[in-house]
Predict the structure.
Amino acid sequence: MIKREVILSYFPKITPKRYQQMLAFFSSLENAWEAEFDEFKQTGWDEQIISEFLEWREKVDEEKICKVLEHEKITCITKDDANYPKLLKEIYDPPFCLFIKGELKQTDFTLAVVGPRRFTNYGKQVTDEIVMPLANQGITIVSGLAYGIDGIAHEATLKANGYTVAVLGSGIDEKHVFPTEHRGLAREIVAKGGAIISEYPPGTVPTKYTFPRRNRIVAGMSLGTLVIEAAEESGALITAQCTLDNGRELFAVPQNITSLTSVGVNNLIKNGAHPVTSADDILNVLNLRDVKKFVDNQKIIPASPAEEKLLAHLSREPLHVDALVKLSSLDSPTVNATLTIMEMTGKVRDLGGKMYVVTK
């Protein structure tokens, strides 16, 4: 059964604040789903919003939502799920639901990389030179899939065979990934083990409001943010401010003072951001010099070809044994016997009802 939080995400005027107000009064979304106008008035919602919500609630097609998510291969996690990003949970207004394409891994070593859509050759060069070594070290690179530095950061991570997460200000269904020219990049990120995520449900068209909101997730998921280039009023500076608001580390690449993209980043450095001229600068500040060794030690080594096939599909997202039989192309007795051994050796865990997750 699909969670109420997922359905609620489809209400066009829901926000983390309104969600919290709803929960504070009703204690559960199930109660809210049965409540009437007078009860909703006690949540603090505006009366016009209440009327729109009650009208929407009567018309929402939950079966259609489920079909679209299944067709688009989109999974959903809520704030209470074990694999919800731990750092994101700590910000002031974390999304109560995330839509995901690909695999959103639990990682403690995450860096946001942002910059302008209009970049210089210098910006592209330093993005490659800094991001690729970080990705090689096992650092997760988070960005916004936008034109310019965002896209270059994702591409540099993929070139280094690293793990990257793209946070969108739109729906993540194929028709609404934005910008349209980066839909191929989005598919490549997923195909190479990364993830495309959004707090907005499939079908959401990006607006001037969704992009700044998206930036708090980019910063919130990360130990720190690296700003490559930024003019005086660059969108990258919104992410930088979110980083500071969250008490995370802020990094900036020094710029030629005559460059149009220099004012924003040089001001960040003047106001206390760590100047960065190499990947080592970031690793030193975050104390992550041994991160690759740690990440490698966390990898689960398959003990047999059957385990290897199952591990290709297992993650922190629960998966039923029947789905594993279908995905792995192994017969049912082999899958069950292999899972039993893997559970005994601590590689997987049965959450009940034959729903399995990896333990690391």
Remarks:
- Residues 305-358 form a domain with the Arc Repressor Mutant, subunit A fold (CATH 1.10.10.10).
- The longest strand covers residues 97-102.
- The two ends are 26 Å apart (CA to CA).
